[in-house]
């Protein structure tokens, strides 16, 4: 059987890329393969943990097309994807460079599991001129996010990838916040892209999954450990993920338009100390973001003024729901000091500028007027 080739237009590829041309009785949707047992007397032994059922293959091809990679794997969570990267590209004693302020779960993996096993790490401030001095003989990878969670800091991706390549170091980017609709790091020179597909790829706050995208050779390097670590998704969840991907472009475009308008409005609203959003002219990351993003994404952060009670503000919201995760069609809000960054020490949070008044807003697809009104009445 043959699969549909990417058209190069993301709107079309969200719906069609990688779909299998199936006999007429199956209709237009990929059937859900529920089997975990297959006839072994063939060249290609299938088993769900080997990532080679029909549902695995269709979704992987689609995600690879969206990110502009040759190959992809869908993992059981974003952390499943990150774990496979570190365990595949590094040995104990090897060294990796991590952007300052990465997602708290990534730092917890590094500090709680990898460092005790002898993996070594340095923290990078995100300035390209300060990167080369951190590279050692045993540096194997550089891991960045852009924009970062939660303060939406922007890293110059093309410069990072260029330095990594010159030094023979693998460049890895967590593209969860931007999605390929707003940013395609492989085109900017990155070797490997990962996602918490729990977020925009899933998009409806009802899936836990991850993704890895790169060249075929890079994905082949990761595949054995993804399989060994047991990081695989079942057919039902893969089907839901494929269904969600069909609307990725329309969701993210609408969410991004809402976020840009809300960030601009919050920026001049009484009661708001500061807004972090790369789409604002005043944002320190704006110039770099303009050069590497197509739309600035649908996540933003803001800090309430010191005289505002964060609990009272959250209690007063009627549409926007306090929630730990992000990127659903519904708008959600959270305090990173109690969620993504709760495991950091108070000193570390203070250094990053994250306190209980910092709110991370995941902007949904609701009517902009309703979202604005909700924030307005809660701010009083
Ligand atoms: C930027 C980022 N990367 C990775 C992860 C981890 O993904 P998951 O929760 O799907 O394991 C998260 C989760 O919030 C995230 O926000």
UniProtKB/TrEMBL annotation:
<dbReference type="GO" id="GO:0030170">
    <property type="term" value="F:pyridoxal phosphate binding"/>
</dbReference>
<comment type="similarity">
    <text>Belongs to the trans-sulfuration enzymes family.</text>
</comment>
<dbReference type="Pfam" id="PF01053">
    <property type="entry name" value="Cys_Met_Meta_PP"/>
</dbReference>
<dbReference type="GO" id="GO:0005737">
    <property type="term" value="C:cytoplasm"/>
</dbReference>
<keyword id="KW-0663">Pyridoxal phosphate</keyword>
<dbReference type="InterPro" id="IPR000277">
    <property type="entry name" value="Cys/Met-Metab_PyrdxlP-dep_enz"/>
</dbReference>
<protein>
    <submittedName>
        <fullName>Cystathionine beta-lyase metC</fullName>
    </submittedName>
</protein>
<dbReference type="InterPro" id="IPR015422">
    <property type="entry name" value="PyrdxlP-dep_Trfase_small"/>
</dbReference>
<dbReference type="InterPro" id="IPR015424">
    <property type="entry name" value="PyrdxlP-dep_Trfase"/>
</dbReference>
<dbReference type="InterPro" id="IPR054542">
    <property type="entry name" value="Cys_met_metab_PP"/>
</dbReference>
<dbReference type="GO" id="GO:0019346">
    <property type="term" value="P:transsulfuration"/>
</dbReference>
<dbReference type="InterPro" id="IPR015421">
    <property type="entry name" value="PyrdxlP-dep_Trfase_major"/>
</dbReference>
<dbReference type="GO" id="GO:0016846">
    <property type="term" value="F:carbon-sulfur lyase activity"/>
</dbReference>
<keyword id="KW-0456">Lyase</keyword>
């Amino acid at each position: 059987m043959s699969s549909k080739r990417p058209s190069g237009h993301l709107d079309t590829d969200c719906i069609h890329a990688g779909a299998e041309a199936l006999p007429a009785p199956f209709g237009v949707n990929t059937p859900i393969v529920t089997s975990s047992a297959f006839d072994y007397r063939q060249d290609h032994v299938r088993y769900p943990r080997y990532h080679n059922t029909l549902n695995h293959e269709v979704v992987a091809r689609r995600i690879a097309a969206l990110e502009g990679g040759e190959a992809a794997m869908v993992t059981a969570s974003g952390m499943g994807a990150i774990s496979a990267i570190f365990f595949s590209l590094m040995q104990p004693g090897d060294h990796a460079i991590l952007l300052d302020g990465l997602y708290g779960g990534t730092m917890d993996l590094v500090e709680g599991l990898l460092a005790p096993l002898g993996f070594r790490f340095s923290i990078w401030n995100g300035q390209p001129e300060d990167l080369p001095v951190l590279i050692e003989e045993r540096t194997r990878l550089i891991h960045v996010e852009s924009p970062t969670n939660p303060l939406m800091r922007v890293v110059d991706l093309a410069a990072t990838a260029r330095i990594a390549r010159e030094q023979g170091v693998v460049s890895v980017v967590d593209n969860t916040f931007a999605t390929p609709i707003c940013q395609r790091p492989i085109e900017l020179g990155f070797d490997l892209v990962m996602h918490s597909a729990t977020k925009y790829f899933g998009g409806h706050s009802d899936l836990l999954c991850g993704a890895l995208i790169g060249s075929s050779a890079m994905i082949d390097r990761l595949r054995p450990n993804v399989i060994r670590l047991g990081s695989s998704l079942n057919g039902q969840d893969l089907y839901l993920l494929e269904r969600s991907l069909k609307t990725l472009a329309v969701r993210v475009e609408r969410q991004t338009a809402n976020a840009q308008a809300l960030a601009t409005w919050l920026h001049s609203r009484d009661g708001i100390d500061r807004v972090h959003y790369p789409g604002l002219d005043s944002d320190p990351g704006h110039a770099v973001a303009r050069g590497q993003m197509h739309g600035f994404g649908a996540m933003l952060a803001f800090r309430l003024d010191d005289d505002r009670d964060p609990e009272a503000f959250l209690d007063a919201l009627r549409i926007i729901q306090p929630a730990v995760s992000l990127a659903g069609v519904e708008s959600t809000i959270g305090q990173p000091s109690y969620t993504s960054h709760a495991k950091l020490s108070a000193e570390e949070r203070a250094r990053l500028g994250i306190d209980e008044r910092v709110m991370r807003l995941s902007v949904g697809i609701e009517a902009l007027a309703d979202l604005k009104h909700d924030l307005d009445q809660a701010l009083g």
